[in-house]
Design brief:
The complex is a heterodimer of chains A (115) and B (112). Chain A has 115 residues and is mainly beta. Chain A contains no helices and eleven strands. The chains are: A mainly beta (115), B mainly beta (112).
């Protein structure tokens, strides 16, 4: 089956620093990846759609300068939370679509805590 | 904004019982309806999915029932087990880029 690997699983960083989260498709090439944010006991909130070789499409209300997304290859997308603040603490999840299949497969998520 | 409405928000079922989670959608362009299972601290995992051309799909203890005219679909978990305790999300997807629209989630607890 399609495997999406996300790294790191959890990270603690100081306020004002930047954090990079990687999302890799291990056994397929993903032309499209999605980044979500999930607050405790809530559903997934789509942040942006990442297409290989082009700029990401951000959902309304998501700051593109705050959440930098790079999709430089067909197997890797990165989300960088810049100048992180405690309110950015959350669970971030990526997903990727498999060519020819509907739906998406998810990474294991990254728990970000900003102190 | 496109929405998928999911109910109940939480559900407690005795071991061996049937867990039923319901979802409703508005957008008739949706043509793929997956269910995801999420354990605490983990990403969602695809459980089972259905297309609108069938009314029911069964995989093991998990069954999706789909009512196209009512724009509703549901997940049935037969012989529920404590290991099924998790949060379940329904979702819907159309042809536009495979972007999923999620329901609000249902926290299922199966009591031993």
């Amino acid at each position: 089956g399609a495997v999406v690997s996300q790294h790191p699983s959890w990270v603690i960083c100081k306020s004002g620093t930047s954090v990079k989260i990687e999302c890799r498709s291990l056994d397929f090439q993903a032309t499209t990846m999605f980044w979500y944010r999930q607050f405790p006991k809530q559903s997934l909130m789509l942040m942006a759609t990442s297409n290989e070789g082009s700029k990401a499409t951000y959902e309304q209300g998501v700051e593109k300068d705050k959440f930098l997304i790079n999709h430089a290859s067909l197997t890797l997308s990165t989300l960088t939370v810049t100048s992180a603040h405690p309110e950015d603490s959350s669970f971030y999840i990526c997903s990727a679509t498999v060519p020819g299949q509907l739906g998406a497969f998810f990474g294991q998520g990254t728990r970000l805590t900003v102190v | 904004q496109q929405q998928v409405k999911q109910s109940p928000q939480s559900l407690i079922v005795q071991k061996g019982g049937i867990s039923i989670i319901n979802c409703a959608y508005e957008n008739t362009a949706f043509d793929y309806f997956p269910w995801y299972q999420q354990f605490p601290g983990k990403g969602p995992a695809l459980l089972i999915a259905i297309r609108p051309d069938v009314s029911e799909k069964k995989e093991g203890r998990f069954t999706i029932s789909f009512n196209k005219s009512a724009k509703q679909f549901s997940l049935h978990i037969m012989d529920s087990q404590p290991g099924d305790s998790a949060t379940y999300f329904c979702a819907a997807c159309g042809n536009a880029g495979n972007m999923l629209t999620f329901g609000g989630g249902t926290r299922l607890m199966v009591k031993p």
